[in-house]
């Protein structure tokens, strides 16, 4: 019997599964699990509702004249930059984030209790690729929120009270061509929050706000920079130096932080960059905080992989005072509004099958580790099944359990058609064609590689396109997300001698992968090898392997097409004969 539909499993998403804290692996399945000739349906896979993090904001000071006043070319703002997401009206931006369980939460800037926040995307199953908080776009005194879908639809929502947004007032398409959309503050001097958007090649475009949130809220994009692909974090920090114009911070994968002061000119919105610090690679996300202290200057937050949040208070010159602790437990956030990394979509999880044929599911904890396992099938029902676990083919952002059975390919229980008996590997790294929809790669027994474009609903695949040959040289082909830092899904292949190769994605259907690049050797030590997506919360795809002893190792992506030294994250996984 094919897998249960994803819609059916998502109906259970409001029911949290209570898991033992700190457990990586629950008790192994019984050796008596019997294989079944027919495959059982999968059970609902729902992340647990974790305890909410603590937020300890810095003390608020009286509003004062900018410390940047008197510096050449910098004037004190007549009115300090307004907060961009002040939901409760206290004059400070609140923190909006999406939890591991897929729900959104609002953490007030005054440190009071976190509460659930509803983003009305229109489809209760949809997981947005990003949420962006540009500020008050129409001058009514309340903030707006921008919702970005994986397929490139950008929508404006007005905030209603302190617990939800309204439905979209405007939507525009085509934004999937960018790997990062940034709320940059007021870059043109008209008091409205503008947007920056970066292409995978590193070009930067300015979308100036018009004030009309119902018709054409942004002017046409204008290219204002290039070479920004060297940054793995871009954060619009609002007004940092007190001149009333939006400023920007960027970070390289090596951890160098740069400050770009705004000019107020649409044609050239930033001055030359100035190095603001180093050592920031210790954080998996840098996040806009606006003015957290009350001095009128934009500040930053930064999160460690362990979940500790820090505040960086602005000096007014692009640099910061000594960091102060801002709270713990923040690894429960899978997405911050205003975070600097490229947003990822499609898979942050892994499926494992015991030797007896039972499926178990693990999800990413955003700290480099996996959750305690969740039983995902009837005992013994999947022994011998030809399964794969590709990045989401629809809009819910969750990996799909696929099965090739007697030549028919099933996606979560729905047939995608016949003719699949000639393929010995099916890989779903994400969007390979540039339309924002999840795609599949299929390798034939002769080693030819074909691309099957998805329709964004997980119900149909386009006619195959041959995109390579000679892939029978590999005993494992995996992929789930971006390893190279450009926001495009990539593929990793392991040769029979254990050499690991990276095939970077291009976003072009006719040639979705570049030539291979060697990224490591000795990977034949792993009995099982898989791509779980992002495990440590930085938006970059990671890899895991199980050696002959059952120890589990993580390889973290650097965002430059390379992977870091392995880290052991579990043991006892020799009970599994499949990892997906």
Primary descriptors:
single chain, 580 residues, mainly beta, five-stranded antiparallel β-sheet, four-stranded antiparallel β-sheet, 1 helix, 41 strands, globular, disordered N terminus
Structural class: mainly beta
Number of β-strand runs: 41
- The helix fraction, in percent, is under 10%
Q: What is the molecular shape?
A: globular
Biggest sheet features: 5 strands, antiparallel
Straight-line N-to-C gap = 19 Å
Tally of contiguous helical segments:
1
Low-pLDDT segments, ≥5 res: 1-5, 7-38, 64-78
Strand-residue fraction?
A: 25-35%
The rounded Rg comes to 24 Å
Structure characterization notes:
- By secondary structure, the protein is mainly beta.
- The protein is built from 1 helix and 41 strands.
- Strands 4, 5, 6, 7 and 8 form a 5-stranded antiparallel sheet that branches. The protein has a 4-stranded antiparallel sheet with strand order 3-2-1-21, with no helix packed on it. Strands 9-10-11-12 form a 4-stranded antiparallel sheet, with no helix packed on it.
- β37 and β38 (542-547) form a beta hairpin.
- It is globular, with a radius of gyration of 24 Å.
- The two termini are 19 Å apart.
- Mean pLDDT is 90; it is low at 1-5, 7-38 and 64-78.
Write the layout of secondary structure elements.
Blueprint: H1 6-10, E1 95-99, E2 104-107, E3 115-117, E4 130-135, E5 144-148, E6 154-160, E7 164-165, E8 170-172, E9 180-185, E10 194-198, E11 204-207, E12 222-225, E13 233-236, E14 248-251, E15 257-260, E16 274-277, E17 285-290, E18 299-303, E19 309-312, E20 324-327, E21 333-336, E22 349-354, E23 359-363, E24 374-375, E25 387-388, E26 402-405, E27 408-411, E28 414-415, E29 423-430, E30 439-444, E31 449-452, E32 465-468, E33 474-478, E34 491-495, E35 500-503, E36 517-520, E37 526-533, E38 542-547, E39 552-555, E40 567-570, E41 576-579
Antiparallel strand pairs: 1-2, 1-21, 2-3, 4-5, 5-6, 6-7, 6-8, 9-10, 10-11, 11-12, 13-14, 14-15, 15-16, 17-18, 18-19, 19-20, 22-23, 22-41, 23-24, 25-26, 26-27, 27-28, 29-30, 30-31, 31-32, 33-34, 34-35, 35-36, 37-38, 38-39, 39-40
């Amino acid at each position: 019997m094919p897998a249960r539909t994803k819609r059916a499993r998502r109906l259970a998403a409001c029911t949290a599964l209570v898991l033992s804290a700190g457990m990586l692996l629950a008790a192994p399945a019984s050796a008596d699990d019997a294989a079944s000739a027919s495959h059982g349906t999968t059970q609902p896979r729902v992340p647990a509702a974790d305890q909410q993090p603590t937020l300890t904001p810095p003390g608020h000071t009286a509003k004062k004249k900018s410390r940047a006043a008197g510096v050449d070319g910098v004037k004190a703002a007549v009115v300090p930059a307004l907060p961009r997401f002040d939901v409760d009206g206290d004059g400070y931006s609140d923190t909006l984030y999406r939890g591991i369980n897929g729900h959104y939460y609002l953490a007030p800037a005054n440190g009071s209790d976190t509460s659930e926040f509803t983003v009305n995307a229109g489809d209760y199953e949809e997981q947005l690729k990003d949420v962006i908080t540009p500020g008050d776009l129409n001058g009514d005194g309340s903030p707006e929120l921008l919702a970005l879908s994986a397929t490139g639809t950008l929508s404006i929502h007005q905030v209603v009270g302190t617990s939800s947004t309204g439905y979209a007032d405007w939507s525009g398409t085509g934004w999937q061509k960018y790997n990062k959309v940034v709320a940059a503050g007021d870059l043109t001097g008209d008091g409205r929050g503008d947007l920056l958007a970066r292409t995978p090649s590193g070009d930067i475009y300015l979308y100036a706000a018009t004030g009309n949130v119902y018709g054409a809220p942004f002017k046409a994009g204008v290219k204002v920079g290039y070479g920004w692909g060297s940054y793995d974090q871009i954060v619009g920090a609002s007004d940092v130096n007190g001149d009333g114009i939006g400023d920007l911070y960027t970070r390289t994968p090596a951890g160098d932080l740069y400050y770009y002061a705004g000019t107020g000119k649409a044609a050239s919105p930033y001055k030359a960059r100035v190095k603001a610090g180093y050592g920031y690679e210790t954080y998996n996300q840098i996040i806009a905080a606006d003015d957290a202290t009350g001095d009128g200057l934009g500040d930053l937050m930064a999160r460690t992989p362990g979940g500790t949040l820090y505040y960086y208070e602005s000096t007014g010159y692009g640099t910061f005072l000594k960091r102060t602790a801002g709270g713990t437990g923040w690894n429960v956030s899978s997405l911050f509004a205003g975070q600097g990394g490229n947003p990822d979509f499609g898979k942050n999880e892994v499926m494992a099958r015991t030797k007896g044929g039972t499926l178990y599911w693990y999800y990413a904890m955003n700290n480099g580790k996996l959750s305690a396992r969740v039983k995902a099938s009837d005992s013994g029902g999947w022994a011998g099944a030809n399964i794969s676990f590709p990045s989401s083919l629809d809009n819910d952002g969750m990996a799909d359990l696929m099965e090739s059975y007697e030549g028919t390919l099933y996606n979560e229980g729905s047939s995608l058609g016949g003719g699949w008996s000639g393929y010995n590997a099916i890989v779903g790294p994400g969007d390979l064609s540039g339309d924002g929809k999840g795609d599949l790669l299929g390798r034939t027994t002769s080693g030819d590689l074909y691309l099957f474009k998805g329709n964004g609903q997980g119900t149909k695949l386009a006619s195959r396109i041959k995109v390579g040959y000679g892939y029978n040289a590999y005993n494992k082909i995996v992929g789930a997300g971006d390893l190279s830092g450009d926001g495009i899904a990539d593929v990793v292949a392991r040769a029979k001698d254990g050499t690991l190769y990276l095939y970077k994605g291009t976003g072009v259907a006719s040639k979705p992968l570049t030539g291979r690049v060697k990224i490591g050797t000795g990977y034949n030590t792993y009995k099982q090898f898989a791509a779980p997506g992002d495990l440590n919360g930085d938006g970059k795809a990671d890899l895991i392997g199980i050696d002959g002893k059952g120890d589990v190792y993580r390889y973290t992506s650097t965002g430059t097409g390379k992977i870091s030294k392995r880290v052991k994250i579990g043991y006892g996984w020799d009970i599994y004969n499949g990892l997906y």
